[in-house]
Amino acid sequence: MKIIMKSLAAIAIVTLISCGGKEEKKSNDIQIGQKPAATEASTETTNAASDVKPSETVDLTNKGIGPIKNLELPAEIDQAMAAKGMEVYKTKCMACHKPDKKFIGPAPTGILERRTPEWIMNMILNPEEMTKNDPLAKALLIEFNGSPMANQNLTEEEARQVLEYFRTL
């Protein structure tokens, strides 16, 4: 009986080892900050951008998906608006976003160096559609472990105040 049990255990171990090999997942999806998979002719040019995280990707052309189509920011920061934005941020956003470090969601410090004001506003106002249809928002969702941004149902005015606060960070 002991020999049969040992034999079955050995067979089970061998089966698990042979079936559980380390396979790489292949994906044809193009991630933000990455180029398409290399062909023999283009092997040298594809590695440069492939290591950039979506949260570090700079895209100052994408305006996102939502109600904000164009937004011109004045040269000077409106301190009163920024103060209101800081209050909105503290009550609605800080559960997931810390100003200067990665948390459940990305840190907003320096966001205007990487995203357009329209994209930021649309992400605040329309996070569900953004994560479904905007390539950068999709990539961020993946980077942040599938934690979707909660729609806080801010008004455009509140979202603009939060954006103004981001300008002060």
From TrEMBL:
The keyword Zinc-finger does not apply. Keywords: Heme, Iron, Metal-binding. The keyword ATP-binding does not apply. Residues 80-169 form the Cytochrome c domain. InterPro entries: Cyt_c-like_dom, Cyt_c-like_dom_sf. PROSITE patterns: CYTC, PROKAR_LIPOPROTEIN. Residues 37-50 have a biased composition (Low complexity). This is Cytochrome C. Residues 28-58 are annotated as: Disordered.
